[in-house]
């Protein structure tokens, strides 16, 4: 129950079981919920989300630098998909950072995994070794990001 005084809502305490309990159902002096559920993120998850956002942001310009005509590289469609997935990963990382949303963390990780999968053909075609090294590094970064973002069941 709430009482109105001077235009403000204030909790009215009730006597329950010999102790005073706040009107919001919590401990004495408890406050109402803001309606936004947030999850506390561990430092490891924050690092993973930051890596996901940065890696997603580095993939956004892919579509604006197409493979030269007759050159070796991914088709334009793959670059466009990577750019779109980069935007999705960046937006999901921002949402995950601000709200702690597990769904947003999974979306960001999923987008990065798909980006990594689109880069894997570089290992099977004749490209310079620095390209293969770059793809290997980005794949390892994706795995590290996923490991940082994931939660073990039962862990707090």
What is the rounded distance between the termini?
Answer: 34 Å
Number of domains: 2
Please state the CA-atom Rg, rounded to the nearest Å.
Answer: 24 Å
**Oligomer designation:** single chain
How would you spell out the order of helices and strands?
EEEEHHHH
Q: What's the mean pLDDT score? A: 79
Strand order in the largest sheet: 1-2
The chain-level structural class is mainly alpha
* Shape, principal axes of CA atoms: elongated
Q: Please mark out the parts with pLDDT under 50 across 5 or more consecutive residues, or reply none.
A: 5-24
Residue fraction in strands = 5-15%
Task: Write a structural description.
With 156 residues, the protein is mainly alpha-helical. The protein has 2 domains: 1-32, no CATH class; 43-149. Helix content is 51%, strand content 9%. The protein is built from 4 helices and 4 strands. The protein has helices at residues 43-59, 76-99, 102-119, 129-149, and strands at residues 2-5, 8-11, 14-16, 19-21. The chain has a two-stranded antiparallel sheet. A hairpin with a 2-residue loop joins strand 3 and strand 4 (19-21). It is elongated, with a radius of gyration of 24 Å.
């Amino acid at each position: 129950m709430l009482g109105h005084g001077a235009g403000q809502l204030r909790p009215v305490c009730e006597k329950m079981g010999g102790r005073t309990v706040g009107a919001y159902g919590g401990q004495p002096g408890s406050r109402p919920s803001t309606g936004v559920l947030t999850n506390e993120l561990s430092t490891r998850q924050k690092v993973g989300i930051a890596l996901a956002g940065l890696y997603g942001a580095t993939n956004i310009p892919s579509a604006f630098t197409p493979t030269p005509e007759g050159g070796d590289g991914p088709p334009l469609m793959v670059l466009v998909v990577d750019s779109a997935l980069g935007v999705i990963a960046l937006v999901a990382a921002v949402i995950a950072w601000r709200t702690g949303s597990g769904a947003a963390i999974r979306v960001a990780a999923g987008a990065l995994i798909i980006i990594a999968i689109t880069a894997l053909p570089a290992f099977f075609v004749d490209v310079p070794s620095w390209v293969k090294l770059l793809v290997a590094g980005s794949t390892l970064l994706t795995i590290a990001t996923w490991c940082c973002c994931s939660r073990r069941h039962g862990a707090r």
